[in-house]
Amino acid sequence: MFVSSRSGSWMEVNSHRNSSRFLQMHPRIEPRMRSILLDWMMEVSEAFTLQRHTFYLAQDYFDRFMQRQYNVQKESLQVIGATCLFLASKMEESRAVKLKQVVDVGDGAYTEQDVRRVELLILKTLGWRLSSDTALFWLELYLQLVLMEVLDLCMLHVNSMDFEYNVLAAAILSRFFHQEVVEQVSGLSGGDIEACISWVIPFVSAACLFGEETVPKFVKIHPEEGHNIQTHTDYLTMLHSGHLSSIPYNAIHTITVLDQPYLQLHI
């Protein structure tokens, strides 16, 4: 189902709703058991070097399956989780996990026949609906909508060439996240990005004032991929606006970073 956001962009929303109340349908399952299982599935994903998308798709399969079943026994959770990873790897990985590998990580808890049986049960329970927008998908989409317009605008200015790409990306992130977080994920120190942060601030302000990033509809592109297509906005108007016209070309524009509040884009 596609719905429009308040900015006019469109997005797909899953028709099913998750709820922790599914535990009421499984008297022998405790909340911590789900946590332990998902933690194990993360460990298996790392061992098999699976993509993050694969794990989140497997998690989605597991939760949807459990919400449509009754009285699942705790002894069955591991084979269900392993089978969900098996299915998700077929959907996401160029080289899917092999059945023998799935059985081996179970350390004797289940057999190949068990996995095949549970696989068919999961497929039937989910109505063979294996394509799903996970929480990871929405997080990536929202981050792109918030950050990409600022980056697009920055790249039009020649002074963007004065900064390394990783520094420019980190500086943009720093306007929406605490700098400690940015330093941790980027490996850069505050001193590495301070000048770039000062330069980026007016671009963030201009994007907030002039831009409401939307995802247009592309006839030949699947809706889930729309946010990955490079779009065109009237960036030149923003570039020559009052907020940016004071930035001289071939010179670093300095602003006291500590005096600038964190800004938020409205999307």
TrEMBL record:
Record protein name field: G2/mitotic-specific cyclin-B2
Quaternary assembly: Interacts with the CDK1 protein kinase to form a serine/threonine kinase holoenzyme complex also known as maturation promoting factor (MPF). The cyclin subunit imparts substrate specificity to the complex.
Cited function: Essential for the control of the cell cycle at the G2/M (mitosis) transition.
Ranges where the Cyclin-like domain occurs: 39-124
Pfam family, one: Cyclin_N
Alphabetical GO biological process terms: cell division
SMART domains attached to this UniProt entry: CYCLIN (SM00385)
Keyword set, alphabetical order: Cell cycle, Cell division, Cyclin
PROSITE patterns for the chain: CYCLINS
InterPro entries: Cyclin (IPR039361), Cyclin-like_dom (IPR013763), Cyclin-like_sf (IPR036915), Cyclin_N (IPR006671), Cyclins_cyclin-box (IPR048258)
Organism of origin: Sphaeramia orbicularis
Top-rank taxon, per record: Eukaryota
Record-stated family: Belongs to the cyclin family. Cyclin AB subfamily.
